[in-house]
Design goal:
Two copies of one chain form a homodimer.
Chain A (H helix, E strand, L loop, with lengths): L2 H16 L6 H7 L4 H7 L3 H19 L9 H17 L1 H5 L1 H7 L1 H27 L7 H17 L15 H13 L10 H11 L3 H4 L5
Keywords (chains A, B): DNA-binding
Organism (chains A, B): Pseudomonas saudimassiliensis
InterPro entries (chains A, B): Homeodomain-like_sf, HTH-type_Tx_Regulator, HTH_TetR, TetR
Chain lengths: ~220, ~220
Amino acid sequence: MKTRDRILAASLELFNTRGERHVTTNHIANHLGMSPGNLYYHFRNKPMIVAELFQRFEQRLDAFFTLPEAPLTLDHKADLLEQLLQIIWQFRFLQQDLDQLLEADPDFAQRYHAFAQRSLRHARGLYQAFIDAGILLMDARQLEALTLNAWIIINSWARLPGAQPRGQQLTEQFLRRGIYQLLMLEDGYIAPAHRPAIGALHARLQVPLGELLPGLD
Amino acid sequence: MKTRDRILAASLELFNTRGERHVTTNHIANHLGMSPGNLYYHFRNKPMIVAELFQRFEQRLDAFFTLPEAPLTLDHKADLLEQLLQIIWQFRFLQQDLDQLLEADPDFAQRYHAFAQRSLRHARGLYQAFIDAGILLMDARQLEALTLNAWIIINSWARLPGAQPRGQQLTEQFLRRGIYQLLMLEDGYIAPAHRPAIGALHARLQVPLGELLPGLD
């Protein structure tokens, strides 16, 4: 692996496990057994590393939204949800530290704003494709509200405001439940013919709430 | 008004308009034409003011969740949504600065955690009452997912991650759209007999998205 890519991989790992704001470029250099000078040769500062990781996240998500030529099926839906889970898990520091990143870095905030608008348009297109395929039964007003609610759930789940015990590490099981919550946003709109099949998807994604948020039951 | 109440009212106003973290106890004293010493006599520090305001917010929200004896109707729903909008608007700094408050103050975080769990149980009870009244048609799994999604929308809307232009002030119109987004979470579950009447509620709350998030259309 090239030095540049090793730095990015190590940064991503440290950001994800310790939180972006608790990790300095010195931590990253130490973790790689590299001199700070060598790291600075590749990245002048931490925001440049964050920007590069964000670009990779953006590319993954833009690819995620590229629709297949054929009409969508429930198998596509299952694949898409798993893909989304994997992308968010891989770049989970972005969800966990989003507010601080937006606050601290105007360049990042501007770029995230454009990304948010593009993602909302793409997500609307994706839901529209499931409407066209006869899987979802919704009108334009419901589609608009669903798209926006889906964006909020995906972007807020990792920080589940105040409901998670303090200092608890984000787990893949917890994110899986977030994907389930996303899927449940559409549950009132599934065409009757597709209802039985959607049960398998639910079973794959549903993590009991009591395991994640003890005290809610 | 007692000095203590004047301090709380001024703090709430400044927190809401400037953001909690940009307001110091000196700003509050200045705003009231009061000496810092006089303010400290009533509140030793800013977290004590935040704690007192949060307690009032909690009391308002707990009262909000108290159900009427009679079976619920759509008029109740309309009233509840307006009440919720008013409570959130009055204490909007809590929504806007939530992540920072939780991070900076462990006592507040612990209290918010208990509040979150109680609110989720109350919200589930409220949705259950609308199921019992025959207005919503949902099973237990849908009720659980709806409750959690509603909590996330309400708690995250004010910060609408990355989608709002930077530095934009939160407006009541923007919050109104958030209440509409909350109502739309149930739209797939409204009993057919109640569908026509729900249209009036939508009309009252729907703020065109293009006005709030330019560039999404």
